[in-house]
# Entry
Amino acid sequence: MTTSAAQLILSGARLENTTGPALIADYLRTDQSVVLNSDFTATGVGGLGTLRLVGAHIGGQLNFEKGRLENAAGPALISGARVVDDMLLHDEFTAVGADVRGMIRLADTRIGGTLLFAAGSLRSTDLPPETLVTLDGATYTGIPKPGSHRHWLWLIREHTPDYATQPYQQLAAVYRAAGQDREVRDILMAQRRHQIERRAITGSDRIGPKSPSGPSASATNPGAPSFCRSQYFLSP
# Structure
């Protein structure tokens, strides 16, 4: 079923469901932006996610600035939307969740503008840090912000649940379109190293969640945040 609206603004709203998702907006269609910012809070429970936007079409921005999503037993956000303009998951955006497939799941999300993904904090409860975000299949047209390409390479390598070619290729594509060939080479070399390492470990180019017994994010990237045993934070 498709629900249509000119725009959806829930700034400052508080939604809670103790038995399932707090907001199901699958197949929502808007002509303008969806704004879930300014202390917007959604709390849900379970594997269906706290906030769902599967198959949604958003005619402007998708704005989560200063919003908060919580789910003690599943993903905080399941997208898969087509967003005509920017997707804003930054400026004190906070999420808490627990899902081995990714706490913030952006798989197959199509972003016509820029992806701004600079969470004030993401916390994956009692799960390793590579369960924070799923990017496989997500596309965007501008160079993602904030941070350099090396920050995004670290995010893809250390905080996604499995190896996949597409997130690297997508990152390379936007840098190539911007004429930044040196960064493109860095991205493709990093992808190849990751691919070789995963194949050597598993005999496959694609595997499930990485073992928590492997090297820590701070060991592989000296600039990465440190993580405690049961709570994982990703800060800009």
Notes: The first helix runs from residue 149 to 159. Residues 3-147 form one domain.
